[in-house]
Design goal:
Strand 15, helix 13 and strand 16 form a beta-alpha-beta unit. The chain has two domains: 278 residues, 3-Layer(aba) Sandwich (Aldehyde Dehydrogenase, Chain A, domain 1), CATH 3.40.605.10; 190 residues, Aldehyde Dehydrogenase, Chain A, domain 2. The strands form five sheets. A seven-stranded mixed beta sheet has the order 14-15-16-13-12-17-18, with helices on both faces. By secondary structure, it is α/β, with parallel strands linked by helices. It is built from 16 helices and 20 strands.
């Protein structure tokens, strides 16, 4: 493992100015302190130091935001011409790119990810807005042909669902915010965004850009605060029509229970324990970097991360050696240092959780092929860890760790059904990847794997056009692609007797 990189360069002036400003809630187009007047600290996970204080929104603030969103929805936003919504979304995408350096620095400073990932997040967010903006003028119902006697003009209308509550995680704050904002805005919904308490900064900066873009007051509202207070209040609010949540499966189950009060619609993008399956004929020059990044990118804090590696026994030792060599080239350090390729975990709590999982794996009989330790640092760093001698009943194999930990297992069976059974032996079903040059194996196995996204000779394709979501306990519904429109709209049937 390459040593920790040097201290990061000084922050840009715009980033410093934002950090030193007041960080209030955005409700009805106005910045304001929470009703209780409380704030909380947000940290740089690479140093453990406080970088800002943020308003702590609570139930009473959520209620104000919902009222503002309802007023905006019924006051004209839902009926805004599609082309006007599209123009506003394009303007927001342009502003994101114009302020990309500041957004990237804030993302890295608050989440810890290396700057190259934060810059990718900025461009990905702008792309998502532009893609979804195009759907604003292309949503439509259809004409139907009833068999009931008489003459009929029967058709369907696709209408916005209404006020949306969006609760997002800390692992990719900017992208997760835009994944929720873009389809809501395109379909004519209004939204209350609740970012994770660990990473509120890019959401707050995004709120400033929403205002600068010219969105009407109350269309986008941002409530910073804690999940058990602000998040729960949003999920339970009787005047919220839909909850869109990304996070852990455990919290997703609570969200679903909260939503039953008024039977609000719910979409859940939850956890994963994704398999990566390597056949003897895999193109290793492509597979090794793909497997390594699939497991360890963003320090493994990716819901779709490849965390279970199944390799044919004939090449198992070769793949282990190559993945370990590739991972050893990572440079741990502050994400703002351009040399850094692997940042810290998001918090002390997450660091301790990952370390506990690794200890349990070693106690259960795993062997650490590499890693399994933390460097001496004030930040929340954990080395990329490759575990072998794993078994299906171990916690490290069955539970989502959300850290840089990869569990590797050899297989000898050539029967695709048996291999699929290995891959599907999990309560999750978010993503998977197949590494082979045999197109027949790739197509057959991709149909047998129970996952929402399957990559062949890539782990996952992150593109706005690709629907993303899970099978089983990995969630309900699909983000991105045309399919996301179903989450933010509802169908009305109209029958006219002629």
């Amino acid at each position: 493992m390459t040593a920790m990189t040097s201290p990061p360069p000084a922050l840009a002036q715009a980033t410093q100015a934002f950090l030193s400003s007041d960080h209030g809630l955005l409700i009805g187009g106005a910045r304001q302190t929470g009703q209780a007047g409380s704030t909380f600290e947000t940290f740089d996970p690479a140093t453990g130091q406080v970088i800002a204080r943020v308003a702590e929104g609570r139930a009473e603030d959520v209620d104000l935001a919902v009222k503002a969103a309802r007023k905006a929805f019924e006051g004209g936003w839902a009926g805004t011409m599609p082309i006007e919504r599209e123009k506003l979304m394009w303007r927001l995408a342009e502003l994101i790119e114009a302020h990309g350096d500041t957004l990237a620095e804030l993302e890295t400073l608050n989440n810890g990810m290396p700057l190259f990932l934060s810059k990718f997040s900025v461009s990905s967010a702008a792309d998502m807005l532009r893609y979804m903006a195009g759907w604003a003028s292309k949503m439509a119902g259809e004409t139907l042909n009833p068999s009931t006697p008489g003459e009929w003009h029967a058709f369907t209308l696709r209408e916005p669902v209404g006020v949306v509550g969006a609760i997002i995680p800390w692992n990719a704050p900017l992208n997760m915010a835009v994944w929720k904002l873009a389809p809501a805005l395109a379909t004519g919904c209004t939204i209350i965004l609740k970012p994770a308490e660990q990473t509120p900064l890019t959401a707050l900066f995004l709120g400033q850009l929403v205002q600068e873009a010219g969105f009407p007051e109350g269309v986008v509202n941002i409530i910073t605060g804690f999940g058990e207070t602000a998040g729960a209040a949003l999920a339970q609010h009787p005047d919220v029509d839909k909850i869109a949540f990304t996070g852990s499966t455990g919290t997703g189950k609570k969200i679903a229970q909260y939503a039953t009060g008024n039977m609000k619609r719910v979409s859940l993008e939850l956890g994963g324990k994704s398999p990566m399956i390597v056949f003897p004929d895999a193109p290793l020059e492509k597979a090794i970097p793909g497997l390594t990044m699939g497991a360890f990118v963003n320090s493994g804090q990716v819901c779709a991360a490849g965390t279970r590696l199944f390799v044919h026994a004939s090449i198992f030792d070769q793949v282990m050696e190559s993945v370990a060599a590739q991972a050893s080239k990572f440079k741990l350090g502050h994400g703002l240092d351009p040399q850094t390729t692997l940042g810290p975990l998001v918090s002390r709590q997450q660091h301790d959780r990952v370390a506990d999982f690794v200890r349990s794996g070693l106690a259960d009989g795993c062997a650490a092929y590499m890693g399994a330790s933390s460097p001496d640092s004030a930040g929340y760093f954990y080395e990329p860890t490759l575990l072998v001698n794993t078994a299906r009943d171990m916690r490290v194999v069955r539970e989502e760790i959300f850290g840089p930990v990869l569990c590797a297992t050899p297989f000898e069976d050539e029967d695709l059904s048996a291999i699929a059974q290995l891959a599907n032996d999990t309560e999750y079903g978010l993503a998977a990847s197949i590494w082979t040059q045999n197109i027949s194996i790739a197509h057959k196995l991709s149909k047998m794997i129970k996952a929402g996204s399957v990559g062949v000779n890539t782990h996952i394709l992150n593109d706005a056009v690709m629907p993303f979501g899970g099978f089983k306990q990995s969630g309900w519904g699909r983000e991105k692609g045309r399919e996301v429109l179903d989450l933010y709209t509802q169908i009305k049937s109209v029958a006219v007797s002629l």
